[in-house]
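Incident log, entry 3
Record: Acyl-CoA N-acyltransferase protein (287 residues)
Problem: checksum mismatch between cached and fresh output.
Input:
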Amino acid sequence: MSHLLANYPNITSLKHISAEILNGGRTRLFGCREIWRSNAFYNEKGKALVQCCSGTSTSTSTSTSTSISPSSSEQVGLNRGINNGEQLKLENLVCDYGWRVRRLVEKGDEMRKVAQVQAEAFHVPVALFNDLFFEFFQAEVLSGLLYKLRNSPPNRYACLVAEPAIDDSDLEQEVVGVVDVTVLRDDNVLQHLPSEAEEYLYISGIAVSESFRRRKVATALLKACEVLSLVWGFEYLALRAYEEDWGARKLYSNAGYQIVSKDSPLFSTWIGRKRRVLMIKRTNMDK
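Fresh output:
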């Protein structure tokens, strides 16, 4: 454990890590980087961009959802936001199932909440010093979120958050679910799309707080992703799930995603990674 703490000579407490990151520090959290990389999607320069698989966060969301179609609140967003470059901030993309989904507010408290939800979903427990490793992992997730927000155009990346649909100014809204949406052009995905498709929306990092799972939060998040694809003008959405994660696969299938390919079993076994499936959905641009 000393090799981890040796990297942070100016930090007297683990609670200071997230503060340093939010203040623009260059803290590198080597202790948990390999765990995060194991589920990360990389661009051509090797930079970690987004989570590739939903992991345990979606495996608990097994309730059946209805087919996705824009509600009245969503249609308002579509009518206002189809023009390219318009940035959705606090407007609700979806208000359904008792949850509303909007874009992340780039403030310290909310970003910490988002990092906590994703860290709790994706952290792999360890036998010793689990709490310490979790705090490092959560700080690494926060660092990755800041990187994406600072280096992505507003119409190329969005972090969406779900919260209770309660209109009460006296109650503090609680982030109960998170999902990342990124515009990508990976050839491994494009080969399954029509030749005219040059880019698509990639959904990743979907996570729901443990006490709010099995309550349609993940369904609302997926619905918001589709609305955002219409707002940004993209016809196809893609995501990956672990082949053995039947709960996640059922959730995505109910939302209209279809399996188009699987990781090579030789490749997955060789590097010791769980086999994944690629799932794609086509939106109706005429809605």
